[in-house]
Write a structure and sequence with these properties.
With 380 residues, this protein is an alpha+beta fold. It contains twelve helices and 13 strands. The longest helix has 15 residues.
Length: 380
């Protein structure tokens, strides 16, 4: 029979034994299938090249590049593409005809973020947002301060980011808002264009812009303007970036949800990421992207979490001017959601306008249908 003294001796001998005599430790490396998710701009625009935003970001992630660096490199494509009039170079300007841009980025594993608002003269505000994250103790720089920071960081500052197309569209908007002063040269100097709304609501600028969407002069996506792109790497690291010119013809200085952490973008490396396009004011009021990620933290799937945010927006939209004849929002909001397991979803208030989103996996880039909360369109 083993005595207490024998037991103590045997335990001491085991502790002193070489590591080779111990039971081997099993190391399990958890991997995730890389995924990049984006709104439709991440699919549509290539700036004359062969890659779109999601395919470039996915390629760089699988080549071992930092996830955020890959995502920013992806959105640089539409930012530089003059055909994408919702972000970057050639974007639809503010009411004064000046292109003001916003962007934010979040690095999940580093738990760092950076953003710029109302920056002028830089085609790629996503790169400036990343520079804010990497080079300052701040999360957000705005206006002239953001532009001065970009200059100090070595970014090229241009006098005007308008293209002939964006300036032409701005002039058409001015004619619709103020036909007595901005005349239509195609109508022998007469004022209101044939397709302009005869009666404007409480917000003539907004209504004139929406009339241009209805007349097919600008896409709905360009009117709201924005690209959100989120991704997860094989090691499970999650990052996100959102970049935009904001609402077309906005009041100078207006800042939407895109550069505000928790509104137009939110990333938690232990949970997932969410970003949005559409009416920024709705996301600002409801901190929608943060709500989506927190809903996933509570166990919701990406789809259910996105739907939860859309329901919150609907419930909090009570002003008559923002409601259609059915009592539903007169605007669209879209969410692009990714969780820690690489599961994703694209949701929208309505399946109208831009009704698809972009995804890239090992099977290549593709577009999928957004799943709506409400039937019909915002105008119903």
């Amino acid at each position: 029979m083993m005595t207490r003294r024998d037991f103590v001796k045997s335990a001491a001998l085991l502790a002193a034994a070489p590591s080779a005599a111990r039971s081997p430790e099993i190391l399990i490396q958890r991997t995730v299938r890389p995924v990049v998710i984006s709104d439709y701009s991440g699919w549509e625009f290539t700036n004359g090249g062969t890659e779109n935003a999601v395919s470039r970001a996915f390629r760089l992630i699988t080549e071992g590049k930092d996830v955020l660096d890959a995502l920013v490199a992806g959105v640089n494509i539409p930012e530089n593409d003059p055909l994408e009039t919702g972000i970057g170079y050639g974007a639809l300007p503010n009411a004064d005809g000046v292109v003001q841009l916003d962007a934010s980025c979040m690095h999940g594993p580093k738990k760092r973020a950076g953003a710029v608002a109302c920056i002028e003269g830089v085609r790629t505000p996503s790169l400036v947002a990343r520079a804010v994250m990497e080079n300052t103790d701040h999360h957000l720089l705005a206006g002239q301060g953001a532009t001065a920071f970009a200059r100090a960081m070595g970014f090229k500052i241009e006098d005007d980011l308008n293209t002939p197309n964006s300036r032409r569209l701005w002039l058409e908007w001015k004619r619709r808002v103020d036909p007595e002063h901005y005349l239509d040269p195609k109508r022998n100097g007469r004022g209101r264009s044939r397709t302009a709304p005869a009666v404007l609501r409480e917000d003539p600028g907004y209504d004139a812009g929406r009339s241009m969407v209805r007349d097919g002069l600008i896409r709905e996506g360009s009117f709201w303007g924005t690209i959100n792109c989120d991704g997860i790497g094989p090691n499970g690291n999650i990052c996100g970036v959102t970049t935009t010119s904001g609402l077309a013809w906005k009041i100078p200085g207006r800042t939407g949800d895109s550069p505000i952490l928790g509104a137009g973008l939110y990333v938690d490396n232990e949970v997932g990421a969410a970003g949005s396009t559409g009416r920024g004011e709705a996301n600002l009021y409801n901190l929608s992207s943060f709500l989506v990620v927190e809903s996933m933290r509570r166990g919701m799937s990406p789809k259910d979490a996105g739907m939860e945010a859309l329901k919150r927006i609907k419930a909090n939209t009570i002003e008559k001017r923002l409601l259609n004849s059915k009592g539903n929002p007169t605007f669209n909001v879209r969410f692009f959601v990714l969780n820690k397991r690489g599961e994703y979803a694209g949701l929208a208030m309505y399946h109208s306008g831009e009704a698809k989103y972009a995804v890239c996996t090992e099977n290549g880039a593709q577009t999928l249908e957004l799943e709506p909360l409400l039937a019909g369109t915002p105008e119903d």
